[in-house]
Design goal:
Blueprint: E1 2-4, E2 8-13, H1 17-27, E3 32-37, H2 40-49, E4 54-57, H3 66-75, E5 83-87, H4 92-100, E6 105-108, H5 113-128, E7 131-137, E8 140-143
Parallel strand pairs: 2-3, 2-4, 4-5, 5-6
Antiparallel strand pairs: 1-7, 7-8
């Protein structure tokens, strides 16, 4: 059986309070540790001082926009943290710009929260090798990854 193990440390950069609250409620299960930033400056501070497994990044933010944040993650912070852009900007030129500055995934609003969750978990698995083989026999469990 292949099983996903571990908690995901997630940074959500989103300025719409209602969406941030929905994300908090949805991801507020034991598997996630979530920090929120409502503007670019706060996001950059959190990224410079914390380690995250995945970043969910809105593009339209006050101050420093999401494109610039992603560029700084890659160029200034030299970070390879997976970044999923979540935005209402769904034109091909917007997607091209996002991927050009270093986004790993791009999700157009409105979206289902479950889809965002699946994409976050996929990015996390690929970046950390979090999939491990687990063998069970009665009450004995062997995790080959540990």
């Amino acid at each position: 059986m292949v099983k996903f193990n571990g908690r995901i440390r997630l940074l959500v950069i989103e300025d719409h309070t209602a969406l941030s609250q929905n994300l908090s409620d949805f991801f507020g299960e034991k598997r996630y540790v979530i920090d929120f930033a409502a503007d670019g400056l706060t996001a950059l501070h959190l990224l410079a001082t914390n380690q995250y497994d995945v970043v969910a990044l809105d593009l339209s933010l006050p101050g420093i926009d999401g494109i610039e944040i992603c560029r700084r993650i890659r160029e200034d912070l030299k970070s390879t943290v997976p970044v999923i852009m979540m935005t209402a900007k769904g034109e091909m030129r917007n997607k091209e710009e996002g991927f050009k500055v270093g986004a790993d995934d791009y999700l157009v609003k409105p979206f289902q929260l479950r889809e965002l969750q699946l994409r976050i978990e996929a990015l996390h698995r690929r970046s950390t090798g979090a999939e491990t083989m687990e063998i069970r026999a009665d009450s004995v469990q062997l995790n080959l990854g540990t």
